[in-house]
């Protein structure tokens, strides 16, 4: 029983990261109705920027908000410079750009910082949260920071005019334009926020998986699984889906001998396929009906 509870707690901790990535995926999907395959590489590049600032001697809690701001500006700029000119292009053009961004960020990170694995210190410390606790300090920190981010996003989308405008632009862009909302600007803000959320995920997971250019590849797959499981049209569903994927991954790796540690990644792919077959809209996603 103790092992079961420990795996649940560890799954919630890793699920918090998957929830962040899933939320970032959903925010860009709602903005342009495509999945951003470069989301993980953008988060990885932001994490390298954070690591470099730490090497320069800046305190972690100064670096953390600075990197979030830099990531927001970077995501906003990518949408304005790269995707705005091709917003009406075919889907395949968008996919090619996403793949290109993936390769660019991955290669540039290796070129600038090389491909050797780098250790990133945890701002929360090492060891258990208290003596005999089943959760470590860094795990608790990951859960806490993720919940704070989610609470801030909920407040932003619920109580601010910009947040309400972004929701309106995502749900019905044509009607949003009729009431004076600049839909293209809301899309760019969505890109910026998604990049900032991805940076949070990257900085929190780097002390666990170590920093290297391919660190976010498997995490992005788990994030995709969480987003699909919860629903690509539901930010809340994406968060719930991310936590579920984290718990299922840990439990399956512990209690199913065939899976172990080597086959945990295909669980994410299995979840994606299973959900798409049984409930394509996800747990909390809405069905989109088009009149033809």
Automatic annotation (TrEMBL):
This is Amino acid/amide ABC transporter membrane protein 1, HAAT family. Keywords: Amino-acid transport, Cell membrane, Membrane, Transmembrane, Transmembrane helix, Transport. The chain crosses the membrane at residues 12-32, 58-79, 91-113, 140-164, 185-209, 265-285. Belongs to the binding-protein-dependent transport system permease family. LivHM subfamily. Its main location: membrane. InterPro entries: ABC_transp_permease (IPR001851), BCAA_transport_permease (IPR052157). One of its GO terms (cellular component) is plasma membrane. It is found in: Cell membrane. It is a multi-pass membrane protein. The keyword Membrane applies. It comes from the Bacteria. Signal peptide: none annotated. One of its GO terms (molecular function) is transmembrane transporter activity. PANTHER family: ABC TRANSPORTER PERMEASE PROTEIN, BRANCHED-CHAIN AMINO ACID TRANSPORT SYSTEM PERMEASE PROTEIN LIVH. It holds the Pfam family BPD_transp_2. GO terms for biological process: amino acid transport. CDD domains: TM_PBP1_LivH_like (cd06582).
């Amino acid at each position: 029983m103790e092992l079961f509870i420990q795996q649940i707690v560890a799954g919630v901790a890793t699920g918090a990261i998957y929830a962040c990535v899933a939320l970032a995926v959903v925010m860009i999907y709602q903005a342009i109705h495509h999945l951003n395959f470069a989301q993980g590489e953008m988060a990885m590049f932001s994490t390298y920027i954070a690591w470099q600032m730490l090497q320069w001697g800046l305190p972690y809690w100064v670096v953390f908000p600075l990197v979030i701001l830099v990531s927001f500006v970077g995501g906003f700029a990518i949408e304005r410079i790269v995707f705005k000119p091709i917003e009406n292009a075919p889907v395949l053009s968008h996919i090619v750009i996403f793949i290109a961004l993936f390769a660019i960020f991955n290669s540039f990170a290796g070129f600038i910082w090389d491909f050797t694995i780098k250790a990133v210190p945890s701002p929360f410390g090492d060891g258990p949260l208290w003596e005999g606790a089943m959760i470590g300090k860094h795990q608790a920190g990951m859960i806490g920071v993720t919940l704070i981010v989610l609470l801030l996003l909920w407040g932003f989308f619920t109580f601010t005019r910009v947040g309400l405008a972004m929701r309106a632009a995502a749900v019905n862009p044509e009607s949003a334009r009729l009431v004076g909302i600049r839909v293209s600007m809301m899309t760019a803000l969505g890109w910026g926020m998604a990049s900032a959320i991805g940076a949070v995920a990257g900085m929190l997971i780097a002390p666990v998986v170590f920093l290297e250019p391919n660190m976010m590849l498997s995490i992005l797959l788990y994030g995709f699984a969480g987003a699909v499981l919860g629903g690509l049209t539901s930010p809340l569903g994406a968060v719930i889906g991310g936590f579920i994927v984290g718990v299922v991954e840990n439990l399956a790796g512990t209690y199913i001998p065939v899976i172990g540690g080597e086959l945990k990644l295909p669980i994410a792919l299995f979840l994606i396929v299973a959900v798409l077959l049984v409930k394509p809209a996800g747990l909390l996603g809405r069905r989109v009906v088009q009149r033809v």
